[in-house]
Write a structure and sequence with these properties.
The chain is an alpha/beta fold. It has one domain: Rossmann fold (3-Layer(aba) Sandwich). The chain contains 8 helices and 9 strands. It has a 7-stranded mixed sheet with strand order 3-2-1-6-7-9-8. The protein has a two-stranded antiparallel ribbon with strand order 4-5. α6 packs antiparallel against α7. Bound molecules: S-adenosylmethionine. S-adenosylmethionine binds next to α3 and β2. The site of S-adenosylmethionine has 20 residues, from α3 and β2.
Length: 283
Amino acid sequence: MSQDTVGTSKPGAENDPKIDSNLLPFGKSGTYHQDYDLILHLPIYVQAMNLHLKWVREVSVASPVIFDAGGGTGIMQRAASQMRPDGDIYLLDLHETMVRRAIQNGSHRDKISHCNVVDMRINDKPVSSESVDHIFSHSVLWALKRPSEFFFEANRVLKRSATLAVSTLSRIDWQLINGYLTYAEEKLSVALKKGLVTASQKQNFISSNYYLLKHAHSPLAKQELLQLGIRHGFEPVEVHSAYNVATANGIRPLFTQVLWKKVGSIFDFNVSPKNEAMSCKYT
Ligand SMILES: C[S@@+](CC[C@H](N)C(=O)[O-])C[C@H]1O[C@@H](n2cnc3c(N)ncnc32)[C@H](O)[C@@H]1O
């Protein structure tokens, strides 16, 4: 993919009034970007990452173009780049703070784009249609007001028969939120005892997660997520439960992780990206 379509775009997206204030923990006025990488102390994150990496390894074309949509501080993008040195693995993210962190952490500047995944424009140019071999996106869809817009864009930029991998928040309730926060608290307490994290980092991580879970726009039940993909021209290939945590009703998944194959093009059938907003409800 040429530099004119993918590169580090002008800063400024976070000053855009359209940017969702519910995502502030990631932005300039929040501090989550500083401590986001504590997530590597959670084995449930590492399991989800390993499944994404397996799917990256399985992309059958040589020298694939791959997008990590909402790639944050670049944990998965760098791991995927190591796994597929033949490929071009680009990180796309809305928040300048996260993108900067990714660069500090070792992601190549020319493989990073500061952009909105529901409108894959890079340096004010749309990513070329049918130019990408695989997209993966972990823990991003829940933040979108209209996740259908992401599927529409993913379908547009993916080549025919390319693959899309998404892991995102299920419909959640307070049991699940408590289950996840208790799990994170336990794992980070172990890291704290070993001197691997500080108390304030741990506190920042837990409070940012609590805030974001409370403000998630689009938690999706497994069937809702599958149907969204199907309506946008994708066929499910693998469906997994992820982020399994202990609750008062036993072990339950906080996330669903799906691999789809593109089987139809949005150019071939009439799908509007604007037709569905999901609601966030806690029961
Ligand atoms: C929970 S983090 C996940 C980061 C990364 N995918 C990972 O698994 O480590 C969510 C990321 O999604 C990004 N994000 C949220 N909405 C976005 C959007 N509309 N376009 C691009 N990135 C977005 C945030 O900036 C943040 O970096």
